[in-house]
Amino acid sequence: MVAISVALALFLTALSLRPTTRSTSYVPPSMYLPLFTAMATIYALPHYVQTEYFATNLLLMHGLLLLPLISWSQPRDSTMTKRRLDLHPTTLYTALVGIAVVIHAINAQEVIKSASQNTSIIRQLYHQIFSHPAQASISLDVVWVAIIMSFWWMTTGSFIAVVLKVATLTGAAGLGVMSFTGVNWKLAASIVPVLLLLSFGLVLLGFLQLSKRNTKRRKALLDKMKILDNEVIAGTDKTPPSKSPVKTMVGFFHPYWYVKLRGPVGRS
After folding, report:
1. Which residues form the domain of 108?
2. 13 lies in a domain?
3. What is the pTM of this model?
4. Residues near 99 by Cβ (< 8 Å), separated by ≥ 6?
5. Considering the domain boundaries, does residue 52 fall inside one?
6. Tally of helices (H runs) and strands (E runs) in the chain
7. CA geometry: angle at 141 spanning 137 and 143, to 5°?
8. pLDDT tens digits, one per residue of 56-65
9. pLDDT tens-digit profile of 103-133?
């Protein structure tokens, strides 16, 4: 609970090692109601700073997060049918993310309003982080959570998606550094074409790698079926050497191709 960034890193590592499956279970109210209530205490926390209710709200927040781990109901099998008040995990995750975005947006507006207009807000946040050891421990943990989530977001998806996300995040980070250091915006604008050319080159490199990989897979498939494709055919005493024509391959995506690769579940 203290180092959220450590727990997040372990959780994402477990996700990367476990194959993605669609959940067939549902979340009971005894689990999601404490989570929603805890989000309410997070929203109320800034209003209780430097008041007698701050510690109470903080303890309530952590206590609510522990309630789902203390299940007083019977464990449910994943094959059981959905009850009336149960939620699908996707619905729960979407609701929690939506609530978190609203809370962060409201708090960000308050921070911007209270910030001094004479100094960069990034510089003010930097000095606020190291204003006190307790503040630094919490703030740096939040910073590491953002860094870990950014790396997770950048490294998931197809090769082209990864390239585009890396270019986007690099550009955003560059703008943040320029704003913090006070770099001239005209100079920053002159770097944009270079970043666009670099992104285009990376995308082109991705297509070339994909084409090279498909060529190897095509050859392996034709060799497995013993089909000659654009290859020289040795001549005989009666026929001269010749060259086999280039074969045209057509692929059809079957709806159960992934299931059949993972293991047979029935005939299609």
Report:
1. 28-68+84-114
2. no
3. 0.55
4. 36, 39
5. yes
6. 9, 2
7. 120
8. 998 998 888 8
9. 999 988 888 888 877 777 778 888 888 888 8
Could you give the CA distance from residue 265 to residue 268 in angstroms, rounded to a whole number? 9
Q: How far, in Å, CA of 86 to CA of 249, rounded? A: 48
**SS3 state of residue 27:** strand
Q: Of the candidates 231, 265, 264, 263, which has an alpha carbon nearest to the alpha carbon of residue 247?
A: 231
Residue with tokens 């494709």: 229
Q: Are 203 and 160 in contact (CB under 8 A)?
A: yes
Domain-embedded: residue 40: yes
Residue type, 257: W
Q: Which residue has the tokens 């890396």?
A: 166
Question: Helix crossing, 121-129 with 89-114: angle to 10°?
Answer: 100
Residue type, 171: G
Write out the two tokens for 55.
């510690």
Q: How many domains does the chain have?
A: 2
Q: Under a CB-based contact definition with an 8 Å cutoff, are residues 158 and 210 in contact? A: no
> Can you read off the two tokens belonging to residue 73?
């109901």
Assigned token pair, 27: 């979340």
> Residue 258 falls within a domain, yes or no?
yes
Q: Which residues contact 137 (CB under 8 A, 6 or more apart)?
A: none
- 101 C-beta neighbours (distance < 10 Å), count: 10
